[in-house]
Design a protein that fits this description.
This protein is α+β, with helices and mostly antiparallel strands. The protein has a 6-stranded mixed sheet, covered by helices on one side. A hairpin with a 2-residue loop joins β26 (763-773) and β27 (776-788). α3 (248-266) packs antiparallel against α4, α13 packs antiparallel against α15 (595-613) and α17 (633-649) crosses α19 (677-688). The chain starts with a strand and ends with a helix. GO terms for molecular function: nucleic acid binding; RNA-directed DNA polymerase activity; RNA-DNA hybrid ribonuclease activity.
Length: 1039
Amino acid sequence: MFLQETKLTSKDTFRIHGYHVIRRDRTRGRRAETTFGGGEATLIREGTPFTVLDSRCTAPEDETTDALLVELQCPLRIKTLNVYVPPIRASSMSDTRTQHFTPDQWPHDTNAMIFGDVNGHSAAWDPLVEEDAIGEQVQEWISQRDFVVANSGAPTRQSPAPPYALSTPDITLHHSSLTNRVEWETLTALPSDHFPILVKVRVGKRKKEEKRKTKPSFKKADWALFEKIIEEKLAASPERDPVPWWTEEVDEAVRRRDELRAQAKADPAAGAAWREAAKEASLTITKARQESWRTFASGLSLRSDVGQVWSTIRAIDGRSATTRRDDATLRVGNRRTSKDSEKADAFMRVYSAVSHLPPRVREDRRVTHELTDFLRTPCTQCGHSRRGCCSPFSEAEMTEELSRLPARKAAGLDRIANEMLGAVTSPALFNLFINDITDDFPPGVSASLYADDLAIWCSDRDVSAAETKVQRALDSLEEWARRWKMVVSLEKTTSTIFTLDPAEARREAALHFQGQPVKFSPTTTFLGITLDRSLTFTGHVKTIKAKMLQRNNVLRAISGTTWGCSPSDLRSTYLAFSRACADYAAGAWMPGLSESGLRELETVQRQACRTITGCVRSTPVDALAREADLLPFSARRRQLAAVAMERHSRDLPGDPVQRILLPENRPRQRLRYDRGWARTGQEISKDAGLDDFPREPFLVVASTPPWESPPPPTVLFHTGLVRPLPQNAPAEQRRTAAEETLAGLPNPDVQAFTDGSATAGTERGGAGAVVYRSGREVKRIRAPAGRFTSSYTAELLALRETLKYIESILTDQDPALNIQLCTDSLSSLMRLREGPANQTERVADQVWLSLRRLGRRHRVDLQWVPGHAGVAGNEIADAVAREAAELPQDGTPITFAAAKSLLKRHVSREWVESTRHSRPAPATRPHLSHDYHDVVGPGRVRLADRLGLSRREGTALARLRTGHSPALQAYRHFIGAEEDDGCPTCDGGVREDAEHFLTSCPATARVRHDVFGREDPTLREVFADPCRVIEFLRRLGRL
């Protein structure tokens, strides 16, 4: 394949599956300082030998023409020239190039072919456009070199602008001796304004046609069986999909685009429909790539492999690292080789000529004779008798030696992979076997056993006393190992002293095990956390920073794409893939981190914030964090500590962690900044108001036993309607679909509509329901859902209370009934549908207890209905739920999910409030003449893509809102691009900052009035509608 105008740079990677890519990128653009456009690439199918030739195919003074010469080693050796002659616009002031094109340097061998976009026209290949200078030069070269134009006269380009004119700037040339071997035609695929060109070259002799005595009768073929066999064969040997994001929607959009392209080729009047279809296809492809990345990114975590992430990015983006040119020919002397075996022999011959020990033939021969004689010398051990140590070993000896080998996975020459294969129960059995390893440890010594890794520790005010107790525990471990014939790896055993006293931190523990001293280590890694002597976590922060910096490269990679550059996608990727490294167990260790350690992590996060928002490096850190919608680690560590405290306060009574939460067990605080996770968490929970309400314990074990976990077949979940509806379907359409869906279910004997309500989705929850029996309303149920709750919890609570009521009105004498529960909470039904054994909330577990009891005798249908669509029962339930939200909430327990959400909001508000009192920027740095936080308000800053803005528009908005924008004279002066910071259109040297530019500049008053409705809006009014800000910038030419 020959591609022109690739527009690639040295920073770009490009690959098509199954092809070698040879590129020549453009080195100069229209202006001397730019390098945009141009470039070409030749793609050669893997397995085809080729040679890249260095012969110059352009004039020495020609700096604009791109040419790439490659020789294909086919049965018919063909020298191909891929050439691109850019159009030079002499009338344009922005084009400083000079046209020096000449085809005199083109190859003119009998086996040469030229494939190019010459942007020249001649009657020989383009009857639609008048001949120009380039066309005249090429035509003269063709006549002098005995070459032939392969073009059939069909156009190869259609203008993307009206009137969609056709032309032929692309040519294919070959020597006249190849005339009967070349076929030329145009295709319709690809969204480019150029048509793809298919050139077929017959390289072998034409096969002689023979009359066949018999031929297959396709009418008698069993095509259904044939299709079945083919499908089975394809399914049995699946191939890797090189385009993972290609969907049926993309296929349909591309098919429609190609069909309209063919119509526009025949009738240019249809060009508008073709261009519209091309834009739609490009948009569909971008959306498919975005969805593919979002699906992959939703599964990212701390343990995600970085290499796999990069592979996925390259697969979605259609690029990959440069591949080896295995099929390139190797030239040795005057001979070229293409086979691997021939290349290996050539390397051996070249190497052997310079690798002899002595470089002279006679000495080389003498050394060879000496080595041969040495090999003939009898063995010093057995004298070639094959006895003693040289005798063949037995099978028993081989088995014994293999058992002593260390575990390895790579197979040797005997094809034996020395790897122990065990049963899946082996780890569990091993844990049971060593479960009593700590039974004889002395009081005051604690231990943690994770598989075969054992940690022993002791806390005491006296280091010597703690050391004595740990030594006794080691003696007990030594006795246990001797009794059960277990081997403890002393090489991996280390000891460490943790203390906040600098004098004690320099001490080394004197411990012994099996008569040998235990190695002392100043740091140790336990469950992924690096602990140092003074518990400053300095080493752990360095490890985390290195991981986050490596993973932040992924953000920068996808920020330059069309499918992953939205701030929401970048933020989600950062949270799941990069910040997860710092979040691991951060509730325990980060509250004790020093300010210097926090700054190390903040530096990495600010880098990610700039990638997400597009803000410049000088942006104030508080504004930068708010623009990216990310809490700084100084606030996040408080949030994580509070969440950890809330989690452990709900553990079972007697849990060791709960003892730490008691005031009498709090450790002493020696450092001002180290308040500990428990003390910090309790203070935040109290400030947030959680201590005034009971806490709901965790559901440790489901009420339904595992052997009864499959739901009854009479309990049915319906999460769809009779026909799918778009998200923005009108209420009437949604109501009609819901009523048709309910009519399709069995006629209910008992019907209930449930709903949950929560103020702002988080506070003062209420659960409501209305119950009908035989079509008559019998009950309206109201229940408080908690002072702090969620709509999801309130919905589940409404289902629970409704089921309890239905159970209370039914008796054993009632026949089998049809019970119908309708809710507008799709998430609740989806969660309940996972089965009773998979529920983690107590209220969901209680719902399933009622469902199982009712399902033993009755049929229960749980149907989703769209909310606020005019469905009568749902509207009544919604009103009842709002009434229930006004009931007293004091006795309703707070769930962990509600507490976690409350703590997050509380810490975020606390941090935003603290930024209002932060010190202002120095006078030497550009800053807004207003308070940034007064402009954006106390709430979250919405990301650009959630406002419907493009990446470029969102970046411009964020920079302008923070005051660090190239659109402002004050910022350009700060970076040295302007001599002063005064507004260029105002007198008196008025500083052009964001407030002046957006609210009071006289030069922009008229545009400001047209866009914002008044000439002097406040900054808060301006930024309240970001889309109008973007329109304002566009009309002024600042975007």
